[in-house]
Amino acid sequence: MSHIAVSFSQVADVQEAAHQACVAVKTKLNCVQTDLVIVFASPTYATIEALNVIHTILKPRRLVGSSTAGVILSEGVFTRGIGILAVNSMEMTFGIASRALDRRSEPRDAGFEWGRKINADCKSPQHQACFLFTDHAFNNSLFIRGAQEVFGFGVPLLGAISSDNFQFQKVCQFFQQQVLTQHAVGVLISGAHIAWSCKHGFKPLGKPRTITKARSNIIQTIDDVPAIQIYKDYLGPDAEGLTKGVFSSHAILYPLGIYIEEQRQYLLKNAIDILADGSIVCQGDVPEGAEVHLMIGNRDSCRNAAAATANQVKDMLGGRQAKLILIIESAARYKIFRNQASSEILAIKEILGYTTPLIGMYAFGEIVPITSDYITNTTHIQNESITILAID
After folding, report:
1. Which of 35, 179, 196, 363 could make a disulfide contact with 389, Cβ separation 3.0–4.6 Å?
2. In this predicted model, what pLDDT tens digit does every residue of 64-79 receive, in sequence order?
3. Closest CA to 260 of 374, 357, 365
4. What is the CB-side half-sphere exposure of residue 193 using CA atoms within 13 A?
5. Based on the domain organization, do 114 and 48 belong to the same domain?
6. Final residue of a domain: which of 240, 275, 296?
7. Are 181 and 211 contained in the same domain?
């Protein structure tokens, strides 16, 4: 038997908000201790005081979580408040681990070490999925690769780049009773059936171009000219706005689409920085020689993509009713939807059910294999997408 509860509060007092959310969860679970707690909190609520309240009331054996630009719930989207997901289960087992991310560490080695720690904490040898929260100021591609070498590529690694209210000043991860910065934290899940899918709804513009020079997560040239030229060709003078902020409107409306031949899909990347030489900085590694386009999407295409994602999850469930729906969505998509963000959640509920507990977060990047029939090395960091994970 598994019991899952979701709760939320946005009262102004942070400790009172945590208290209200915990009491609601405890009432539903009716237990002394909690096997697993995942916390999503907007910047104001991402505090050690809130975690102390959670530990006092719920006594979680394991706790992880992340700051976020917005908490996604069945009732809608909230840019202020604290959300709690709590699980007690006789079927599922969990392992958690944290790892500091610093530029002195080799990322692949750090990922391998983190993978071994989380693997050791999970007592079951059969794993269904691993969920990761990590920091935006770090090249996470090699970290992910190192972790996958521990789990094996048959275990999907999904997750989120922690976010805040687009100020990049209160981006953090939660681990047990700690509020951490520049860390990777995560939970390994065993004993559950997992169904998941990820889509974005953006389409390519214009003729294909080629990334002719790239280094790690930096696109230096496209068709042998500075990478920024791809934006200048389409946007003209408006392309200058890309240098004024990571989430400028043009970067959101026109992300880069990198064609992944093996899956015949486009991996989306926002320009998170423009260097003096016209290079474009992305999140996660960029393959030299890949086909690249500017991409375009809107509210309707994003909403349709969310519905298609939910339908694919429903098909994977094979008629079983999910016990939990977990959503990781690009913070950039919130910028597109604005006050219509709840309509996307409604579309998901119409497909996966109105009574299933639902919770999620907006992220600065999504960590996900492009397809559920993925092969070696196809877990990527992308932007502008929505990932839906169901546990039954």
Report:
1. 196
2. 999 999 999 999 999 9
3. 374
4. 11
5. yes
6. 296
7. no
Share of the chain above pLDDT 70, in %: 95
Q: How many CB atoms lie within 10 A of CB 1?
A: 6
If asked whether residues 275 and 192 sit together in one domain, one would say: no
Q: Which of 147, 85, 80 is nearest to 110 (CA)?
A: 147
Q: What pairing do the DSSP bridges indicate for beta strands 386-391 and 173-175?
A: unpaired
Q: Which domain holds residue 274?
A: 203-296
Q: Which of 296, 316, 349 is the last residue of a domain?
A: 296
| Confidence category of residue 298, pLDDT binned at 50, 70, 90 | very high
* AA identity, residue 184: A
| Burial class of residue 191, CB neighbours in 10 A (0-12, 13-18, 19+) | middle
pLDDT, average across residues 101-119: 90
Query: Rg for the chain (alpha carbons), in Å?
Result: 20
Residues 128, 47 share a domain: yes
The distance in angstroms from the start CA to the end CA of the chain is 11
Number of H helices, E strands in the chain: 9, 26
Question: Element (H or E) spanning 226, and its range?
Answer: strand 225-226
Please state the domain count of the chain: 2
Distance of CA 40 to the CA centre of its chain: 12
